[in-house]
Each structure stands twice: as C-alpha cells, then as structure tokens.
Structure to design on (276 residues):
C-alpha cells in the first residue's frame, strides 16, 4: 500500500532562481536532512542515498519530465519504490511557490511503523523549509541546468505505478545500526510488557503488578546437613560406666522425711548386718 505526501512552501526568491537551484541535485544533502548523497548519472538519471528514521535506502530514479521554471518529475527504476513531481509557480512580488507531490511504498516493519508515525511527511516538510532558508540566505542559485526532458509529453504527476520496475527490489535497501539497536530495545520492552500483562490477567488483579522473573527471586537458605553420631562402642568384658544418679533421688531433704537410723542407715529397728 502506497502513501502520498503533498507539501507547499513559499520562497522569497524569484522563480528562475528557485528552479535553477533545485536542478542542482547533488547539492541536496546541504539542505535536505534525510538525503545523504545524490549522484547525477546522466541528464535524466539520478542515484540517491537517503536515511530517514534510521532506515537507509538507496535507489535510482529516472527524470520522466523536466520543464524549466515549471516542473521536475521522476520515478524510481530500482531500489526504494517512489515517484513524484516538484512544481514551481510565480507567487508575485519576486516570490515563488514550490509544490511537492511524493508517493512511495514503505517496505519492511521499520518503514511501515515509521509511515504510521508520518516520519516521511515530517521529513519532507522540514526539507522544504531548509531549502527555503538555504536559497533565501544565498540570494542566488549555485548553478543551473536548463535542459528539457520529455517536454510536452502527457506525463502528469507520476505515482508508484510509474515506478513499478523498482517493486520488490530490496537489494539496495538497508537499515542502519541505530535502527537495529532501537528495534531490539523496542522488542525487549514489548516482550516485558506482554509478560507483565499476562501475569496480572492470570492473578485476576485489576491493578497489574510488575512481573517478577524467577531468576530475580532470592535463593532459599540451604538446609544444614546433620551427620548422625554413632554410639560409643563397648569393649567386650568392660564394665559400662555408671549412669549418673539424678540428684533429686539423693536429696537430703527428701531423705529427712523417712524414719532412717542415722547410724545403720536402715529404716527399721533391726541391727545392721542382721537377718532380714
């Protein structure tokens, strides 16, 4: 699915000066933020390299119509699929209106997300404003090409159907390292958000709590190992040691309650050593 962008800017410079400057394609990187380089291969063929929103794209375009002080139209022949027209109109009092129509097909996840965020539209608007400032500050064109391409042909405003030869040609499309890093980080945050949402849903709690990963939970304390102690072995023929007697059994206070002969230690009146 293609996206069309249309933007206007009024420049306080006469028509021919504005048009002449626009024909200096190789100077576009000086005022177009997304354009890295433009190489003019011939009068009607250009090689572009641009980076917008972290996505690096390269393509070749053919100028399908060029009329001095009026219009420049193009369509991609390979690489990124895009086409469009820049039209120039005298706005009076030495001013010129520049009208841009651009149609393109976003390719890949990053470009499609950027398309939803109007990244290309915002870039085009900013580039036209920078072009306006550039030519107004200079006051004259740094060069000019007044040649004509297919003048009078029923070209109209080219669209992506005129760039059909470039469709599916992703050999010159690429993504910068910055975009890859951003994409990885976004994927990680999305995964964490899904995990947190799932946990909150399973618990039935409306106020979802942050997800806790098992690896972050404190480890349970280790249970100490108890080594059983074997009872002391008894040597055959050896008399076991006397078991200590509970001191309460020999408490004098207890013995005092019994009628005991203090001399014989007996509790009756028979003499010590006598028969029972």
């Amino acid at each position: 699915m293609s996206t069309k962008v249309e933007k206007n800017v009024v420049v306080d410079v006469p028509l021919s000066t504005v048009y002449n400057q626009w024909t200096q394609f190789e100077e576009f990187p000086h005022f177009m933020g997304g354009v890295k380089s433009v190489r003019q291969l011939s009068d009607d063929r250009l090689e572009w390299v641009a980076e917008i929103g972290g996505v690096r794209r390269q393509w070749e375009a053919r100028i399908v119509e060029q009329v001095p002080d009026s219009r420049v139209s193009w369509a991609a022949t390979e690489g990124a699929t895009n086409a469009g027209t820049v039209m120039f109109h005298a706005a009076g009092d030495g001013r010129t209106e520049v009208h841009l129509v651009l149609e393109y097909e976003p390719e890949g996840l990053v470009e499609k997300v950027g398309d939803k965020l109007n990244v290309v539209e915002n870039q085009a608007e900013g580039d036209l404003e920078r072009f306006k400032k550039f030519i107004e500050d200079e006051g004259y064109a740094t060069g000019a090409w007044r040649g004509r391409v297919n003048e009078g042909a029923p070209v109209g405003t080219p669209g992506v159907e005129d760039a059909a030869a470039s469709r599916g040609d992703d050999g010159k499309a690429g993504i910068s390292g910055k975009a890859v890093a951003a994409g990885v980080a976004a994927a990680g945050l999305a995964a964490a958000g899904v995990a947190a949402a799932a946990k909150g849903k399973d618990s039935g709690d409306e106020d979802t709590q942050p997800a806790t990963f098992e690896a972050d939970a404190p480890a349970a304390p280790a249970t100490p190992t108890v080594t059983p102690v074997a009872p002391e072995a008894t040597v055959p023929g050896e008399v076991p040691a006397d078991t200590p007697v509970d001191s309460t059994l020999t408490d004098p206070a207890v013995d005092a309650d019994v009628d005991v002969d203090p001399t014989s230690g007996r509790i009756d009146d028979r003499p010590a050593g006598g028969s029972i």
